[in-house]
From TrEMBL:
Any one GO MF annotation of this record: acyltransferase activity, transferring groups other than amino-acyl groups
InterPro entries reported for this sequence: Acyl_CoA_acyltransferase, GNAT_dom, N-acetyltransferase
Protein name, per record: Acetyltransferase
Source organism of the structure: Candidatus Promineifilum breve
Residue intervals of the N-acetyltransferase domain: 20-170
Signal peptide: none
SUPFAM superfamilies linked to this entry: Acyl-CoA N-acyltransferases (Nat)
Taxonomic lineage of the native organism: Bacteria, Bacillati, Chloroflexota, Ardenticatenia, Candidatus Promineifilales
Any one Pfam family match given in the protein's UniProt record, by short name: Acetyltransf_3
């Protein structure tokens, strides 16, 4: 089911039929460079189960990013619930695209579509992005989508803090 559309992309709900595409995405060391490294097929299955659970419980989660021209699923972009970032519950906008699709403005386009859907359709009032300070491309995507550096946060399991980028409804993009 389609969630929202942009000029070249649409976002749709992920399903178990996306398992192979996601397994390839999460297995790529370039794509996972700023995460905890490549992930196993079992890890991806768990991630997908959590995603479907998030759709049912919260009405959002990470969505598939589909290139309209090819019909290919090129990654994900969507919303993640964090119970505690510097003492407050937050909703993060997260994104990850296949290496072959980088550098065409797709992440920015997907983030803007997810941002607008979150504010206008879901009625959310604040979104954050948690970004490794060395991830220059992601910092740039967040900035282009209208997010601003607000604070840093050391998340459980991490050895150094992420940047917390923020946008609030009405701030524009
Ligand atoms: C981060 C990611 C989503 C960006 O996807 P993308 O479709 O290439 O992003 P866009 O084309 O919309 O924008 C990327 C911007 O970063 C810039 N950029 C990319 N690599 C860069 C680098 N090494 N140094 C400086 N700028 C860089 C691009 O020039 C572009 O900015 P511009 O439009 O001003 O020229 C993609 O690289 C990815 O999936 N990475 C792995 C997963 C990840 O890190 N996700 C984010 C976790 S917070």
């Amino acid at each position: 089911m389609v969630v929202t559309k942009s000029k070249r992309l649409f976002l749709r709900f992920l399903t178990y039929s996306d398992q192979i595409t996601l397994t390839l995405l999460f297995a790529d060391p370039d794509v996972m460079r700023f995460g905890d490294g490549p992930r196993s097929p079992e890890w991806v299955q768990d991630w997908l189960r959590h995603t479907l659970d998030s759709y049912a419980r919260r009405g959002y989660g990470p969505w598939a990013v589909v290139e309209k021209a090819s019909g290919e699923t090129i990654g994900y972009c969507g919303l993640f619930h964090y119970p505690d970032v510097n003492g407050r519950a937050e909703i993060e906008i997260g994104y990850r695209l296949a290496r072959a699709c980088w550098g065409q403005g797709y992440a920015t386009e997907a983030v803007m579509a997810a941002r607008d859907y979150a504010f206008n359709a879901l009625g959310l009032t604040r979104l954050i992005a948690l970004i490794d300070p060395a991830n220059v491309a992601s910092l740039r995507v967040a900035t282009k989508a209208g997010l601003r550096h607000e604070a840093d946060a050391l998340l459980p399991g991490y050895t150094y803090p992420d940047r917390v980028y923020v946008i609030e409804r009405g701030q524009g993009g």
